[in-house]
Design goal:
It is built from 6 helices and 4 strands. It is an alpha+beta fold. The chain folds into 2 domains: about 55 residues, Phosphoribosyl-AMP cyclohydrolase (Ubiquitin-like (UB roll)); about 90 residues, Helix Hairpins (Orthogonal Bundle). Strands 1-2 form a two-stranded antiparallel sheet. It has a two-stranded antiparallel sheet with strand order 3-4. The chain is globular.
Length: about 200
Amino acid sequence: VLMLAYMNGESLAKTVETGYTWFWSRSRQELWNKGATSGHMQKVASITYDCDGDALLVKVDQTGAACHTGHRSCFFNPLWNEGEGKNLPVPEPDNESIYGVLAELYRVILYKREHGGEKSYTKYLFMKGQDKILKKVGEESAETIIASKNNSRQEVIYEMSDLWYHCMVLLAYHGITPAELLHELSGRRSKENNSKY
């Protein structure tokens, strides 16, 4: 089991038509194509429905991680296992996971790059090109350093947010997704690469 998501008639039709998974976002009230931003596409192998006709099992060939956290499956938090007792901690809900926020920001950056108006700062950065983007990354790095030296927690949060945004713009400039960074970091913490940290 990789993930749980919602479909409506339109997203199911789109899935069958394209051969890749499409879902329905109840919060945004729009269709979304799994992996369109991260590259972690799901090629459909088969679709079956349950005895009540209200749930679908979609078997897919998964590219990369299915979960926005970078895990292969969204179901990675243990709650109870036979033989391990019943005192496993219940994980705290993570409704605004860091990767979810970064992925959404990245989607906005990509959209603004193509469709931003004349007042769009993101569009402006891409129009000015790599040198302008790199200059802003440098400036925001310096401002983050100064905020840290000032021992101002709020300043660090503010300046680091600016820095991360401009770093995300730089990633988009190179066509690199946040998921690729997450994959690299995950590899560094693996047993084979634990000397990285």
